[in-house]
């Protein structure tokens, strides 16, 4: 007979130190409902209904995968929060279409100045923000997933996570390209949102990779600071 103590096992302590404790069912449910609410709200009178539907195929598939895999794969609360934040940014774009999010109008209303004019932008940059946010925010949950599903640790885990971010970003660009070939012209323009930039796909992938690299560096610095803190005195 094996006796188990009340304290955490060594393996559990390693997991918590490396990727954090798994979210509780209540935490995960609350964030799931919040994500679903965002999808519903963004679907109220969207600028382009067909584009909104296409933009939500991947988010709904991701939610389905997270719910279906809950018994085998539980991420940390911060990883789920990162996913919900990414949902918020994406759903705003899905509501207005990426190329028409009126952030410049909002900037003028708040500050009286044009953000595009101040930064010298000639196009709507919201789609760039989404791709940067994808790498920045999705890096954490993806790293946790790979930590649990593979034996890789350290630098190799970072390299694999960055590679998957870049690969999935490229896959999304291919989905946009294929989808744009088989839908109406207006829907294709709203969904692909290249805004006549011939290097749009490459820039989007580069921003996703930049976001993931930034998240990796910041996460590494935070873990180094955490590990060097002196133990708390009781």
List keywords for this structure.
234 residues; mainly alpha; 11 helices; 0% strand; globular; disordered N terminus
Query: Which series of helices and strands comes N to C?
Result: HHHHHHHHHHH
N-to-C terminal Cα separation, in Å? 35 Å
Mean pLDDT, to the nearest integer, reads 86
The level of helicity is over 70%
Count of discrete alpha- or pi-helical segments spanning 4 or more residues: 11
What is the number of independent domains? 1
Low-confidence stretches: 1-13
Oligomer: single chain
Strand tally: 0
Rg: 20 Å
Q: What shape does the CA trace take?
A: globular
Describe the protein in words.
- With 234 residues, this protein is mainly alpha-helical.
- It has one domain (23-219).
- The chain is built from 11 helices and no strands.
- It has helices spanning 10-19, 25-42, 49-55, 57-68, 77-96, 103-111, 115-119, 126-149, 154-181, 185-192, 200-228.
- α5 runs antiparallel to α8.
- The longest helix has 29 residues, at 200-228.
- It is globular, with a radius of gyration of 20 Å.
- The chain starts with 9 loop residues before the first helix and ends in a 6-residue tail after the last helix.
- The model is unreliable at 1-13 (pLDDT under 50).
- InterPro entries: YjdF, YjdF-like.
- This is DUF2238 domain-containing protein.
- It comes from Pseudomonas guariconensis.
């Amino acid at each position: 007979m094996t006796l188990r103590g009340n304290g955490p096992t060594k393996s559990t302590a390693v997991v918590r130190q490396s990727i954090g404790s798994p979210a509780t069912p209540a935490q995960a449910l609350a964030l799931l409902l919040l994500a679903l609410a965002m999808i519903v709200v963004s679907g109220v009178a969207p600028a382009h209904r067909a584009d909104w539907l296409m933009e939500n195929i991947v988010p709904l598939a991701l939610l389905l995968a997270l719910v279906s895999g809950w018994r085998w794969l539980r991420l940390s609360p911060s990883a789920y929060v990162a996913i919900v934040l990414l949902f918020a940014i994406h759903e705003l774009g899905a509501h207005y279409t990426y190329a028409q999010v009126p952030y410049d109008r909002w900037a003028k209303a708040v500050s009286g100045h044009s953000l595009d004019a101040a930064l010298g932008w000639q196009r709507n940059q919201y789609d760039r923000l989404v791709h940067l946010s994808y790498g920045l925010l999705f890096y954490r949950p993806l790293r946790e997933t790979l930590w649990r599903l593979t034996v890789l640790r350290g630098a190799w885990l970072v390299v694999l996570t960055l590679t998957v971010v870049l690969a999935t970003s490229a896959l999304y660009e291919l989905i946009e390209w294929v989808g744009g070939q088989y839908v109406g012209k207006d829907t294709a323009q709203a969904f692909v949102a290249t805004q006549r930039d011939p290097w749009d796909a490459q820039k989007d992938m580069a921003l996703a990779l930049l976001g993931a690299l930034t998240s990796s560096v910041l996460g590494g610095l935070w873990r180094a600071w955490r590990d060097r803190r002196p133990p708390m005195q009781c």
